[in-house]
């Protein structure tokens, strides 16, 4: 089942649920709040402005904010183009409440300063070690094929604690048709398998695929699954969509959040939508 919201022009939607309230973050450092108890209820722009205290080196492209609750704080992993590095890179901001304001705690970009990097996510493993998985973007690669990369993070989430390791290429996925590695998000199944959802383009448009870590480690060998988590052909839905993340609603139902379509189609603008998902036999199954 796909739930359409009335929130448009919000790319890369990331959902946080706290005390029965839904928070949605998206590109442009936007934050929407939904207190209705229903995903298709009313979403209002946050009254706190600005959501993010803009750093001095910010130039443009404030993309894909993710907010992770850790030890009573809210950590935003996000992308922007920096005047210092002259690259897109990923940084960490922190706030005491979901609506912010978020203040930068990393020293500018924590990703390599001579790479274009976007779409960082946070994953904390079973030993409590934090990792960041992020996009080593196709724009700085000689063959224009993007990579997905990973490194350990410091316990205070301010900087990398190991050298980045490249995990896989955009063209490793059998369904992929472009060099894009967008929107990574980690998910550990009840049986202990470590999965990553991520987006690239396919023959039917923007889509969400699934990769699995062979040894269950973030820096392990990643295998691409042929079956996608979302593609418009599979769903019988008229619009493509992607840059997904997974969350559980207040009733315990698992959902994929994404923007759809990737670019406006006719009268349909890019919209925040939710696809119901179930975990079955250590796999993620869409419920259409």
Throw out a few tags for this protein.
288 residues, mainly beta, Tachylectin-2, Chain A, 5-stranded antiparallel sheet, 4-stranded antiparallel sheet
Explain how this protein is built.
- It is a single chain.
- The chain has 288 residues and is mainly β.
- It has one helix spanning 232-235; strands spanning 2-8, 14-18, 21-26, 30-34, 44-45, 58-70, 73-82, 88-95, 103-104, 117-124, 130-136, 147-152, 165-169, 182-188, 194-202, 205-213, 222-224, 242-248, 254-260, 271-280, 283-286.
- It has one domain: Tachylectin-2, Chain A (5 Propeller).
- The chain has one helix and 21 strands.
- Strand 10 and strand 11 (130-136) form a beta hairpin.
- The protein is globular, with a radius of gyration of 18 Å.
- 45% of the residues are buried.
- The mean pLDDT is 97.
| Beta-strand content estimate | over 45%
* CATH H-level superfamily title: Glycosyl hydrolase domain, family 43
- The CATH class label is Mainly Beta
Instruction: Tell me the domain tally.
Output: 1
Distance between the termini: 4 Å
Number of strands: 21
Question: What does the largest sheet look like?
Answer: 5 strands, antiparallel
Shape: globular
Average pLDDT reading: 97
Helix % is under 10%
Structural class: mainly beta
Number of helices: 1
User: Looking at CATH, which topology would you report?
Assistant: Tachylectin-2, Chain A
Uncertain segments are none
What's the gyration radius in Å? 18 Å
Order of helices and strands: EEEEEEEEEEEEEEEEEHEEEE
CATH architecture tag: 5 Propeller
């Amino acid at each position: 089942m796909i739930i359409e919201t009335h929130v448009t022009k919000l790319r890369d939607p990331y959902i946080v649920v706290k005390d029965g309230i839904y928070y949605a973050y998206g590109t442009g450092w936007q934050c929407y709040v939904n207190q209705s108890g229903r995903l298709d209820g009313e979403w209002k722009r946050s009254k706190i402005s600005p959501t993010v205290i803009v750093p001095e080196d910010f130039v443009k492209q404030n993309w894909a904010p993710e907010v992770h609750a850790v030890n009573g704080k809210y950590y935003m992993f996000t992308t922007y183009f920096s005047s210092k590095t002259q690259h897109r890179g990923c940084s960490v901001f922190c706030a005491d409440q979901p609506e912010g304001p978020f203040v930068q705690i990393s020293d500018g970009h924590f990703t390599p300063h001579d790479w274009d990097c976007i779409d960082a996510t946070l994953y904390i493993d079973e030993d409590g070690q934090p990792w960041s998985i992020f996009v080593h973007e196709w724009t700085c690669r000689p063959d224009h094929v993007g990579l997905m990369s990973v490194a350990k993070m410091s316990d205070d989430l301010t900087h990398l604690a190991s050298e980045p390791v490249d995990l896989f290429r955009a063209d490793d996925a059998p369904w992929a048709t472009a060099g894009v590695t967008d929107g990574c998000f980690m998910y550990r199944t009840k049986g202990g398998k470590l999965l990553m959802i991520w987006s690239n383009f396919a023959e039917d448009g923007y889509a969400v695929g699934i990769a699995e870590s062979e040894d269950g480690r973030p820096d392990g060998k990643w295998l691409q699954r042929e079956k996608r988590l979302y593609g418009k052909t599979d769903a019988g839905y008229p619009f493509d969509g992607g840059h997904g993340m997974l969350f559980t609603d207040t009733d315990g139902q698992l959902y994929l959040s994404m923007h759809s379509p990737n670019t406006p189609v006719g009268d349909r603008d890019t919209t925040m939508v939710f696809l119901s998902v179930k975990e079955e036999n250590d796999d993620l199954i869409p419920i259409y």
